[in-house]
Design a protein that fits this description.
Layout: H1 13-25, H2 36-46, E1 58-67, E2 73-81, E3 89-93, H3 98-107, H4 109-117, E4 125-128, H5 136-139, E5 144-146, H6 153-166, H7 179-197, E6 200-202, E7 207-209
Parallel strand pairs: 1-4, 4-5
Antiparallel strand pairs: 1-2, 2-3, 6-7
Length: 216
């Protein structure tokens, strides 16, 4: 809480942190130790926090459907580092195509890590399943590998954590959810997720948080 500087007004940092942790762990936003609107205010503030995670260049990429009310759904894409366990990039789309694979590539998370964390990445490899959208890796002449198990399980672990969290929500997300609000919510979820699995660097504050739990 000191590092991300949410500036609590009427509640201590400990109370706000407990409420956010409880909510992200699965408790309803109406049942935390903060009023519902106050919790959502801090959640929105937290979604603006910028961070950088260490990457190795060895990634698994995958996508899954997230349902909202009335049967509408979005695709959530994640890129997870096989060696560090961190998720340096995710995005939300309304469809799935090779163009979205190109968007994943243009984010180039290695350059930001090299700039901020002073690491050098000489080789990048993407691991994926057999979905036809990933043929774009071949078209774009990007080194990649198609697998079904083992390394690809790292992406599935991220999705299992996410789906476990949203399974308690009615219709998964509120009726007025759109791609922007879903992206904002996911940015907080993956911020907390990364903080548990890898060192997280906050460039604006010049600090690193390293909880260092097991990746298993």
């Amino acid at each position: 809480m000191e590092y991300i500087n949410l500036e609590p007004r009427f509640y201590s940092s400990e109370v706000v942190a407990l409420a956010l942790a409880s909510y992200l762990s699965g408790l309803s936003s109406w049942r935390t130790c903060l009023p519902h609107s106050t919790l959502l205010y801090y959640l929105r503030r937290l979604s603006c926090v910028r961070c950088v995670v260490p990457v190795s260049g060895f990634y698994v990429v995958d996508e899954t459907k997230i349902m909202v009310i009335r049967g509408q759904y979005y695709y959530v894409w994640i890129v997870r580092d096989v060696k560090t366990g961190a998720i340096p990039f995710f995005m939300v789309t309304s469809s799935r195509s090779g163009l979205h694979v190109l968007i994943v590539l243009t984010k180039n998370v290695e350059k930001e890590a090299e700039k901020v964390l002073k690491t050098r990445i000489d080789k990048v490899v993407y691991i994926h399943d057999g979905a036809t959208v990933y043929n774009a890796f071949t078209w774009l002449n990007v080194e990649h590998k198609r697998v079904t198990f083992n390394e690809r399980d790292y992406a599935e672990q991220g999705f299992r954590s996410l789906k476990h969290r949203i399974s308690s929500m009615d219709f998964h997300f509120p009726w007025n959810t759109n791609r922007f609000t879903l992206t904002r919510w996911l940015s907080v979820f993956f911020l907390a997720y990364n903080a548990l699995y890898a060192p997280v660097y906050f460039p604006d504050r010049g600090v690193i948080i390293n909880v260092n739990i097991s990746n298993e």
